C-alpha cells in the first residue's frame, strides 16, 4: 500500500516528531508511508464564520495540490464514522484487496476541513467525539495505521 498523510501545519514538538518517526519506521515493512505538510493559514483567535470558512478554503486549496485522482481519500472529521481498530484494519485490508492501494489520510487545521475537501473524501472517520490537537492526531493516526497492519497480518498487538 502507498499511504500519504496530508496534514495542515508544521510539526514542531520534538516528542511528537520522535513518536511519529518511530511508527513510520515500524510501518516501513508493511507499506510505503509519507507525510505531506501544507502550511496553515495564520488567523486571529476570534474569527467570524465567513473568516473561518475563508481560512479553511485556503488550507483546502493547499491540500488539493497534494491529492491525486487515483487516491482513496479518508478525512479525519469530528462528524466522521467511528471505527474500532479491527474495523479500521478491515477497511484498509478491503481497500488493498479491491485495488485501492493508494490511500490519502487528510488531517485539517485547527478549524477543520473545507467543504470542498469533505466532498472529495471517500470516507470520513472520527477517532473520538473529543477534540484533539491536529498535531497530535498525526501520531494517533500513524499508530492506528501500524496497529491495523498488525491486525491484518494476525500479528500480536496491544489491546
Automatic annotation (TrEMBL):
<dbReference type="GO" id="GO:0008168">
    <property type="term" value="F:methyltransferase activity"/>
</dbReference>
<feature type="binding site">
    <location>
        <begin position="127"/>
        <end position="132"/>
    </location>
    <ligand>
        <name>S-adenosyl-L-methionine</name>
    </ligand>
</feature>
<protein>
    <recommendedName>
        <fullName>Ribosomal RNA large subunit methyltransferase H</fullName>
        <ecNumber>2.1.1.177</ecNumber>
    </recommendedName>
</protein>
<keyword id="KW-0963">Cytoplasm</keyword>
<dbReference type="GO" id="GO:0032259">
    <property type="term" value="P:methylation"/>
</dbReference>
<dbReference type="Pfam" id="PF02590">
    <property type="entry name" value="SPOUT_MTase"/>
</dbReference>
<keyword id="KW-0489">Methyltransferase</keyword>
<feature type="binding site">
    <location>
        <position position="108"/>
    </location>
    <ligand>
        <name>S-adenosyl-L-methionine</name>
    </ligand>
</feature>
<comment type="subunit">
    <text>Homodimer.</text>
</comment>
<dbReference type="InterPro" id="IPR003742">
    <property type="entry name" value="RlmH-like"/>
</dbReference>
<dbReference type="InterPro" id="IPR029026">
    <property type="entry name" value="tRNA_m1G_MTases_N"/>
</dbReference>
<dbReference type="InterPro" id="IPR029028">
    <property type="entry name" value="Alpha/beta_knot_MTases"/>
</dbReference>
<keyword id="KW-0698">rRNA processing</keyword>
<comment type="similarity">
    <text>Belongs to the RNA methyltransferase RlmH family.</text>
</comment>
<feature type="binding site">
    <location>
        <position position="76"/>
    </location>
    <ligand>
        <name>S-adenosyl-L-methionine</name>
    </ligand>
</feature>
<keyword id="KW-0808">Transferase</keyword>
<keyword id="KW-0949">S-adenosyl-L-methionine</keyword>
<comment type="function">
    <text>Specifically methylates the pseudouridine at position 1915 (m3Psi1915) in 23S rRNA.</text>
</comment>
